[in-house]
Write a structure and sequence with these properties.
The chain is an alpha+beta fold and 161 residues long. The chain is 29% helix and 44% strand. The longest helix has 46 residues, at 2-47.
Length: 161
């Protein structure tokens, strides 16, 4: 009887091991199938708008805000640098204008156009010539992209003689 008992125990262990191996192979096959099918599944979910879409936008900022001029001397040139980041998935066309708000009104200081490739930052280095526009003026840069418009501003004060 003992050899029979020993044989049954060995057979039971062997069956458990086979089931374990089959289960392990099944889990492995399902895992590989899931990974291989993931790009297709994600694409399908995106087409159904069931996954969050990347937000598309533009942003404007001063390239070196710590170096913005706090004062100006009438008749001298002043450097103005700003960056526009295109967070769209396609190239975008932009236009910009630089102007001064003065006590006497708005004075145009410069303008331009450029194209920014998708997901890139485009730096603009411009030089403006400030006449005597008053004791304190606000310099504004406006960018336009289609119907969207954004602006940034800094203040500068006339140097006393």
């Amino acid at each position: 009887m003992q050899p029979n008992t020993h044989m049954r125990a060995h057979k039971a262990r062997s069956n458990r091991l086979k089931r374990y191996v089959v289960c392990l192979l099944l889990v492995l096959a399902l895992g590989i199938g899931a990974v291989a099918g993931a790009p297709h599944a994600a694409a399908q979910l995106r087409s159904w708008k069931m996954l969050p879409q990347a937000e598309q936008f533009s942003e404007i900022y001063f390239t070196n805000p710590n170096t913005l001029p706090h004062t100006y001397t009438p008749g001298q040139q002043q450097a103005v640098s700003f960056t526009v980041s295109n967070h769209y998935t396609a190239a975008q066309n932009y236009s910009y204008i630089i102007f001064a708000d003065t006590p006497a009104g708005v004075v145009s200081l410069g303008e331009g156009v450029f194209e920014a490739a998708p997901n890139t930052a485009h730096r603009i280095d411009n030089t403006v010539n400030l006449a005597d526009l008053g004791p304190r003026i606000r310099i504004t840069i406006v960018i336009k992209n289609g119907n969207d418009q954004q602006s940034i501003t800094y203040w500068t004060t006339r140097k006393s003689a």
